Amino acid sequence: MVIYVDELFLENFIMNYIILYITAYFSKIKPKWYRLSLASALGAIYVILTYIVNISIYNSLISKAILSILIVIVGFNFKRTVEFLKIICIFYLTTFAIGGAGFCIGYFSDAVTITETGMIYVKEISLKIVIISILITFIMAKVVVMILKNRTNLSAEYFDIDIFLEDKKAKLSAFLDTGNTIHEPFSKRSVVFAEGEELRDFFPKEIYEVLIKGEDMEKIKEDFWKSRIVLIPVSTINESYQIKCGIRTDKIVVHDKECNFEKERIAVVLCNNISKDGSYSAIIGKSIFEM
């Protein structure tokens, strides 16, 4: 059988790039094209080596596992082990889903044949089958993500949340406002509104006064606090259009009966008398449960 190395490289490079891009999409990562290109090239070179160098170790499960780990390390910039595990799981799911979709389409188009004895014969997987497989996988993944978003018990009104900033932590009872769609204008991250008194110890006095009043931001001199300030446009029924001053936290954890949702760099807007009867001390929107 004649194998054209350039075609083999290009086909695998494109496939790897698409898989990595879909992985980045569902991991909520803004990928660097050059990192994805390097990782895709690494995978394509590996495939060529399996054809040129006839050594069984290249086709072993361990070799493929190591390759996938290297591809993820090269393709994405992550700082924590948890991030790596999340990315590699999505990478595997994407790869298996596209492969499974391709197999099914190939079976129904006679490109794949299963004999009575259980033997599987693959004639030729065309580019058309690959493209359809990718589209089907992407659409199905979007549907699954939507289902997972709604899986949370949003019929509940209150959730316990933990707010983390540097070495400080506060536990608050949050009211779920399903009509709250307020988010940061650029990052599109969800925004949490919290009772100022509950977080007073998080900040120096002058910083707290600026955040709770939402004015005199020029008083903030320290680079640490200036880098965390975010301006958030807010429009409510009771108030006209306003610009609120929020502060980015390290992370917020929302505790649900089935699982916990951990979101990093969520902005918090400090408020006075957030609850008239004191039944809750924070307000969250349903977008905070999004993956």
Describe this entry's structure for a reader.
A hairpin with a 2-residue loop joins strand 3 and strand 4. Helix content is 42%, strand content 20%. It is elongated. The chain is built from seven helices and eleven strands. The mean pLDDT is 79. 23% of the residues are buried. The chain folds into two domains: 5-151, no CATH class; 158-289, Cathepsin D, subunit A, domain 1, CATH 2.40.70. The longest helix has 28 residues, at 81-108.
Summarize the SSE layout with pairings:
Elements: H1 5-26, H2 33-52, H3 61-75, H4 81-108, E1 112-114, E2 120-122, H5 127-151, E3 158-165, E4 168-176, E5 191-195, H6 205-213, H7 223-226, E6 229-234, E7 242-248, E8 251-255, E9 260-264, E10 267-271, E11 282-284
Give descriptors for this structure.
alpha+beta, 9-stranded mixed beta sheet, two-stranded antiparallel ribbon, 291 residues, single chain, 7 helices, Cathepsin D, subunit A, domain 1, 11 strands
Q: Helical amount among residues, as a percent range?
A: 40-55%
Percentage of β-strand residues = 15-25%
Q: What is the overall pLDDT average?
A: 79
Main sheet record: 9 strands, mixed
**Number of β-strand runs:** 11
Sheet with the most strands: spatial strand order: 6-7-10-5-11-4-3-8-9
State the separation between the terminal residues, measured CA to CA: 46 Å
Brief rundown of the structure:
This protein is α+β, with helices and mostly antiparallel strands. It is 42% helix and 20% strand.
